[in-house]
Structure formats: structure tokens, C-alpha cells
Amino acid sequence: MERGHYEIAAGNIEKSKMLLKTRDGFANNGLIPEQVWDTEDIPEKGLFLGKFTGSAMPLTWAHAEYIKLCSSIKNKRIFDMSLQTEGRYLKKKTPSPYTIWRFNWPCDTISSQKKLRIEVKAAAIIRWSADNWQTQNDMETKDTGLGIYVADIDFKKGNSTEIKFTFFWKEANRWEEKVFEVKVKN
Q: pTM higher than 0.70 for the full model?
């Protein structure tokens, strides 16, 4: 259902209608499953491509999301979009002040107008430089309480062309054996 709402937000009402119709095809005796099997059949486990997985049914959450999507399609706008979210991101087009870097999603470049937010899954000290190691800075990551540790690098804007950084893993008591680079563009 989330994908259908995404399509509405992107202005693709017809695509959202198609996704709703597809979801209708997954119903079992009128009940909407929470999960649908999306790979090869495993008959011995009762898992078949495009069929419900045996997850909870009826699941009021799935039915509520279905009704919200129907309403969103009818009104051509997301049913439960908060006014604050709509105002900030759709009307004012407020950009994020961060560019995110993760091991599984490293960014290559960053605008000189943004901060570099580094997200890792363990406590670390990030050693970084914006002047090819002529100077270096150490910054501890902060625990978000969600199993993610973050550090925001607000490098000196202006003449930096790249940010280089590495990690000291606190629990393992060792340095990462690699230096990472993110190019800065003006």
C-alpha cells in the first residue's frame, strides 16, 4: 500500500490504481494479507509466488491501509498527509541539510551547502579531514537508540574539494583499514 501512496505523491494516479488492483488479486476470501510471497514456490512450506504467506489475516492494519489508498486515489492526494509535512516538503520544498553516507549506500559527492551525515551500526570515532590530511578532526558518533550511530561533519565551506575519513571502532578497539572519500562540489 505504501508504494501506491508513493505513486500518488509522485503524481502517478494511474500507477497507484494499477497497484491497488494488483493488491486485490492477492486477497484470500476477501481478506487482505499482510505479506505476499514474491519469489519461487516452496510448496512444502505452503509458499507460492503471488500468494499470501500465511501471515495474520484478517489484519486490521492491512485493511486500513487498503481503505486509505482507495480514499487517496479517489481524492488524488494522500489521505493522511499531515499539513506540517505537506507545507514543509511539498509547498516550501525544504531540502535536507544533510547528505547521508553509509557503508551500504556511500555517497560520492556532497554539495558544499550541506553537512555530511555518516551513519554506522557500531560506536566509532570518525577521523576526518577536509584538506588532504594537513589537519584532522576526530568526532564520536552518537547513539540514536535505533542501532544506528551518527556523526555530522560540518566541514569548512569554501575551499574544500573533498572530505576524507576513516573509523576507529570502539568496541573492537581497531581502526578501519581504509580511507573513504567524498568529493565536494560548489
A: no
